[in-house]
Every structure is written in structure tokens, then in C-alpha cells.
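Example 3.2
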Amino acid sequence: VHALISAVDDPYYRAVFKFLLSTGLRISELLSLKEDDISITGGTARIRIRGKGSKERIIAVPADVAREAMDAGIFSRKVSARTIQRALRRCAERAGIRKRVTPHVLRHTFAVLLIEKGVPVNKIQVLLGHESLATTGIYLKIAGESVLVPKVV
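Structure, written as C-alpha cells:
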């Protein structure tokens, strides 16, 4: 993650990638966000997301990440998902990452990092906007056997 972010020279894409890594949003969710969907209070920003199936959820993100995203204009600049994918691929190559990196890989990274921190899987399910806990369970396999027993609180 650090190598990837360090390889990004464009402030717009740095803000996009950090926002995706900090929220676990789908690329379509990110592209549909408007600045009005974000409210910042203290050190935390709350984001109202309209996800798959027009379902709405609210998640928190560090205020500095939200401010950086707002300053970089990621909610007003119109780019395609494909443009973001290409920029991410170029930055991953520049960082020396050999694996295929896509916006969805950043979503997986967000989930796996939460699992490794011991966040209960049902809370991760809500953050990711998954309807089924089984869908979130896929991330448990990615994280490795050490976390295969989910905490449900």
C-alpha cells in the first residue's frame, strides 16, 4: 500500500486511491459521490453512499482523507472507471508491484486489513455493503487461515 501511494505523482489519483483504500468503496460508488454526501466533524468524515441496488449506507473515513479528496476535486471531476483503472495499473507498475492491481483489489485490501485488525466480520459486511455474510466471507479466505473463524458481534 505504501509503495503504491508513494508511486502516485498526480494529486488527483493519489486522493482517489487513498479514498478507495480508506473506505472500501466500489469504483461505481466512488464515481457517484458528490461533495454533499460528505460531512466532516472533527477527525472523522461521514459519507452517505448509494450502493448496489440503490441501497444507502453511511461509513466513516478519516477527515484528512476526505479533505484531500475534496481538495483534489475527486467528486467534481468526471473521469471513467476505466481511466482510474489505467492510472492505478501504471502506478502499481511504477511501484514495482507485479500483481494485477485494480480498484476492486483496493476494496479487498481494505477488507483484509480490517480482518487482520480483528474487526468483526459482520461490521465489515456493513461497511462493504454486502447483503450476505457469505459474500464477506470470501475476504476471510484471502486474509489467510489465521482469521478463518469470524468474530460476530
